[in-house]
Amino acid sequence: MQTDTAEKWFQDIIRIYGPVSKVNLFGTPTVFLHGLATNKLVYTCDGNTLANQQPPSIRRICGEKNVTELRGDEHKRVRDALVSFLKPEVLKQYVGKMDREIRKHLVMHWHGKQKVTVMPLMKTLTFDIMSSLIFGIEQGATGNALVELFEHMMDGLVSIPINLPFTIMFKYVTHLQDP
After folding, report:
1. C-alpha–C-alpha distance, residues 137 and 43, integer Å
2. How far apart are CA 15 and CA 9, in angstroms?
3. CA–CA separation, 128 vs 137, rounded Å?
4. From the UniProt record, which GO molecular function terms apply (predicted)?
5. Does 103 have pLDDT greater than 90?
6. Helix count (H) and strand count (E) of the chain?
7. Please, which residues have CB within 8 angstroms of residue 131's CB and are 6 or more apart in sequence?
8. I need a labelling partner for 25 at 20 to 30 A (CA). Which of 1, 2, 43, 139 fits?
9. Which residues contact 26 (CB under 8 A, 6 or more apart)?
10. How far apart are CA 132 and CA 104, in angstroms?
């Protein structure tokens, strides 16, 4: 997966072991599910049949009570709140604000440029829109500080969960404790 061939890796797992298999990722036993039927199982079953558990790096950084670790009634309550935020009639209220954010982003980062790197700019745009809509934080000193913290968090989330001084996990946990 180091050569950015994740899609090929997934297809090989499916071809060799089938749409449901057990793999070991970073020393963590993981159930690999693929296909429409498995998506339906994941999204409709109760917390007793199938439980989600994040890798140690995510639990360490986001905490034991983050949204992805909730189960049962607590999970249902939070999921319902998130779904209500994403209903079409609610999203319609955000179209104008999203349009303004996109236009501002295009003027700032795209117009007049001979060359643009799309992926980082799309991440920036998505982050700016979400922080503006959800938290009411506009671009500026606070927004920039939030972006920097978010980037550190993302590096920590995808790191190997070993907390030694030379690892990304160590750098993030240290930054988390003493920002």
Report:
1. 32
2. 10
3. 8
4. heme binding; iron ion binding; monooxygenase activity; oxidoreductase activity, acting on paired donors, with incorporation or reduction of molecular oxygen
5. yes
6. 9, 2
7. 137, 143, 146
8. 43
9. 55, 57, 160, 161
10. 13
- Within a domain: residue 156? no
Cβ burial, residue 41 (10 Å; 0-12/13-18/19+): middle
Structural tokens at position 2: 């180091």
Q: How many domains does the chain have?
A: 1
The stretch 15-34 carries a mean pLDDT of 82
Residue 158, domain member (yes or no): no
Is residue 40 situated within a structural domain? yes
Q: How far apart are CA 172 and CA 161, in angstroms?
A: 11
pLDDT at residue 112, as a whole number: 92
pTM of the model: 0.59
For 127, residues 6+ apart whose C-beta sits below 8 A from its C-beta are 147, 150
